[in-house]
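Today's session is about reading a structure prediction critically. Students often jump straight to the picture, but the first step is always the sequence itself: look for stretches that repeat, for charged clusters, for runs of hydrophobic residues. Only then move on to the predicted structure, which in these notes is written as discrete structure tokens rather than atom positions. Here is the chain we will use throughout the hour.
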Amino acid sequence: MCSVVSTIDNNTVPNISIVIPVFNAEKFIFETLSCVQNQIFRNFECVLVNDGSTDNSLQIIERFIEKDDRFRVISVPNHGCANIPRNIAIRNSTGLFVFNLDADDLIELDTIEKVVQRQRDTSADIVILRMIGCATQSKGEIWRLPLSDFDMNQVLEGKDACRLTIGKWLIPCNGMLVKRDLFQNVPEGKYFISDEIASRHLLYKSNKVAFAETKYFYRNNNESITRYISPKLFDRLLTDEILNRFVDEKFELLDPVNVLFRNTRLFNLIYLQHDFIRYRKSFDNSLSVEIAMNFVNVYNSQKINLLKKELPFFLSLLFTSGYTVFKIASFLYVLIKDRKGRKYQMK
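Below is the predicted structure for this chain, in token form.
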């Protein structure tokens, strides 16, 4: 338990809305809400959206509501992604700034204090903290974003901060403190990783992006949809299509960030193609046909002529010689990589 008392006069700062989408999080939600309730910064509301949970998540949430009027919950039918319930929470919140938190993640007890103070010091539209990847049952660090040598004292323009998320995540978007006005006209999206699209829009729209040296613990939940093969995993095909349009609109065709994204998008497609071929028999037939058509369409939307020039010769030969060759090459390529220990992760 943290015994520190807030050094900020809560009455002189913007109210904060902590928003949390919840779906079947009974194993984690008590600890998550406890770390929210015990924040040394007190002037916040916590708006949860119960996204059709079928476990005891709602009952656990209601225990907090009974004892603390800063917590409230809205129950809705399941949407199949976290972005829609998160946006419902935002629309039903009142704070001038919004802090997003996932139902199975944790923050330090002074996190809200630090991001609020950083916002006041810099007048930033967005404040980003340090995200620590850890095992579900502990805070033991597996990875971190940004890396340790990243200058957390800098303040970036929104477009420059956005660059750091395209093709490769150099800064996190979980746990951002965001000025409410930025959410206007940001695409909502219906796919399970649509929040990745929304985050880029928010960063690009902001005037200033600052950083706060405090930790967001991203717990690697083995029961999460991103941890096993599910038809929804292939939503990335469609979110990458949407992100491709965003990158083309905001950055020049030969801008290094656009080149990097083309490469990343292709390798996302390669690894997803392998996984689809391997596991498609476990999916409903009509859904399997739909996903298969998405692969063809997404492959044909790649900028093949540019990729031929940008890829090493051998990879260019494998992956830019038509979809039939691409499909076979993808399966064999990833099969070989998996034998050596797969290191590539979707970006």
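Discussion point for the tutorial: Residues 37 and 68 are 8 Å apart (CA to CA).
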